[in-house]
Design a protein that fits this description.
about 170 residues; mainly beta; 10 strands
Length: about 170
């Protein structure tokens, strides 16, 4: 009897501990998303870095009642922006990864490389809150005057062919 009490208590505790910390995804949203695409850009110069641009058509029921917040896609979080175009509303988000400047000295004579510092480890950031496939994204938004952030999952994100910007010639 006493053992079953402790066993039940242990199972209850484990059940509470195994609750997911993943935010709750809404099954329905006050908008629809059509033709989501992602495109990668690479700068023509080494220091220009890379860019990922997410874009989709957005059809809100009441545009003034919804405030877009972020797009979660492929392990990245991007600030979402809405634009009104001639054909309707568009969601756009951009993630830019710039290459860090390096003071590394590379020389055939190893003695001239003495001042080089080893690379710094990446700072530990927050864990990505969603388990998504490669063609899935999550849009976070606020509805009305509610202060609670809501999440809506979309799928079918199509990857466009990447672009490589030409570099400037060195004179």
């Amino acid at each position: 009897m006493r053992t079953s009490f402790y066993f039940g208590l242990l199972l209850s505790f484990m059940g509470l501990m195994s609750c997911s910390s993943q935010p709750k995804i809404q099954t329905e949203a006050p908008f629809t998303v059509e033709r989501p695409t992602v495109e990668y850009w690479v700068g023509g110069r080494e220091e220009s870095g890379t860019q990922m641009r997410f874009e989709a058509r957005w059809n809100p029921i009441n545009p003034s009642a919804i405030t877009l917040d972020s797009i979660f896609f492929r392990g990245r979080v991007m600030k979402a922006e809405s634009q009104e175009t001639e054909t309707g509303f568009t969601i756009m988000a951009t993630f830019i990864e710039s290459k860090p400047e390096s003071d590394m000295i590379m020389h055939a004579d190893g003695r001239r490389e003495v001042g080089n510092q080893p690379p710094k480890p990446l700072s530990p950031g927050k864990a990505f809150p969603f388990d998504l496939g490669t063609d899935e994204a999550v849009i976070s938004y606020f509805e009305g005057k509610a202060s609670e952030k809501r999440y809506y999952k979309i799928s079918g994100v199509v990857e466009k062919q990447g672009r490589i910007s030409p570099g400037r010639t060195k004179n």
